[in-house]
Amino acid sequence: MLKGKILKFSDSYAIVCSDTLAYQKIKLKPKMEIGQTIYYFEEDVITPSKTVNKPFLSTFKQRSFGFKFVPLLAVLLISVLVFNHQHISPTHLPAYAVISIDINPSLSLLIDDTGLVNQAEAKNVDGINLLKQVSLEKVPLEDAIETIIVAAETSGYLDANKRIFIATAERSNDHMVTELITQVLESSAVDDPYTIYLAEVDYQLYEAAQEKAVSIGHYYLDLQTEVPDDKLFDVETLERVLSDEESSIQKHQPKEKILEMQEKKHKTQDTHKESIIDKQEEKRKQQGIKKEEKNIKQIEKKDKKPSKDKPKTNNKTKST
Amino acid sequence: MKDKTNDEHDILNIINDCQQGNLQSRNIFIEQYMPFIVKTTAHFLNRYIELENNDELIIAMIAFDEAITKFDAQKGTFIAFAERLIKNRIIDYQRTGDKSIFISYDDPQNTIVKHMSNPYNLEDSILEKNEIEAYESSLKVFGLNYESLIDASPKHIKTRTTALSIGKKSSQEDAIVEKLYASKRLPITKIATCFKITIKVIKRSKALITSVIIAYVEKFDAITNWIDNTLKDEDHVKR
Question: Which residues 214-233 of B are in CB contact (within 8 Å) with A?
Fold first, then answer.
């Protein structure tokens, strides 16, 4: 026998809060009112499993022979799963998207099409240690990112610069996952002043990164810069890549900083409108020159490297 | 596992004891059979039975007590006899419309009387209803509602009680409350460091903890009294 307070009605159920603060749906009966404290029983509770499983089980009960084969079927299923493990293990399942998070712990998350984490892979020792603390499988992507950042902070992995590098690679180019992460970063999911660099890279990078046993973010930065591995995620390196027009990196700063920057920008716009326009024109010219130089460099690189190993980024594809 | 005849034999022994005047034994027996009394009453009336101020439940309890007194083992099982007597007494009560209830035996542990306490107050019940509806509006600001709490609340009672306790303690910490209301998200890190709890514990009860903090901060007494009773019961069980 359970005790509960009635909180809400819908057309087909009422919601009660039990005396152990479990929120439950119960069947509707006459003379119910919000705020009433009532006695109810397990059979009054509406659970999804009750409605789904009952007809299935009752048909099995009617055909008693069916039950005799259930253990046999289970054994067969397990043996099929074991023998085919190589082919159906999560690493071989095509992921909808791959995300890497590099703080110092380096992690890769394989995301399914419902936005849940299918598999979390550690790419360095710190990553292994971090994954021991958190459980990410079947967790929504937004929560997974928050969990990783919070765990990294409590474990002391986030340094004084508080920078995080996230790379996304989506199988279909609909940018859904990147947009989702951007929303998380723009909301207050991360409650401390981190600077987060977010890069959208080509899905083909994933296989190449897997071969080198590094995260896609690591592999992407490795391609963009020529700095040693230990300086790959330094703020200077990230800022240099960010300033490169061809890179697909975005920078997310805490809201307060952004507001400050916007205020400063407005002030300078009021006083020096004309000079800014001139500077912008100058900048555009310089950027045009830079772009041309980069194109030449790229052509030179293409000549040096064999074409099948060369991964592409979205922006690169656009530019070519 | 006990079989049915053993159970019936035990019941007969207890009833004999009660019929010979052991009041303590009678009270314990009624208390043990409360789920049966409530279920029989609810089934007969086809509605849920309120914990307090429910005349039919009191009639049913008195009828159960009468069944103990009048039961004769040669006329069938006790449960069938008690069930029939409860139904008959409720029918009598509904027919006559007699609203005066007499307890015909000593009730030292207030087994029946406690169900009669707290006279019904219409004003209080309207206030409580308004408060419950206002609470859901407040939850919505944080992306929650009663439906979402059904799925988000931990299934295990111990985990839920821990979450209640964390939520209540967090509601007393200004830094946590300010952060929650500013960002509309539970400041997991702050709570973890403040109370030295693992993130995992907070994470799995995120919605419930948030709802508890809101209830205490915005002073929804109908909810907080309910939570306090849960925590009190849990403390009582631990002791």
Answer: 222-223, 226-227, 229-230, 233
One DSSP character per residue, A92-153 reads: GSPPSEEEEEESSSEEEEEE-TTSBEEEEEE-SHHHHHHHHH---TT-BHHHHHHHHHHHHH
B135 band by pLDDT with thresholds 50, 70 and 90: very high
Domains, in order of start, for chain B = 4-115 (1.10.1740), 122-238 (no CATH)
Q: For A258-313, how does the pLDDT look when each residue is reduced to its tens digit (9 = 90+)?
A: 455 555 555 555 555 555 556 667 767 777 776 777 777 777 766 665 544 444 44
- What's the pLDDT tens digit per position in B93-111? 888 765 555 555 555 455 5
What's the rounded Cα separation, in Å, for the pair A111 and A120? 9
ipTM more than 0.85? no
Helix (H, G, I), strand (E, B) or coil at A165: strand
Residues of A in contact with B146 (CB under 8 A): 7-8, 15, 23
Q: How far is A283 from chain B (nearest CA, A)?
A: 38
Q: Where are the domains of chain A?
A: 2-46, 50-88, 95-255
Count the Cβ atoms, other than its own, within 10 Å of residue B203. Answer: 20
Candidates B122, B201, B192; CA nearest to A152 is B192
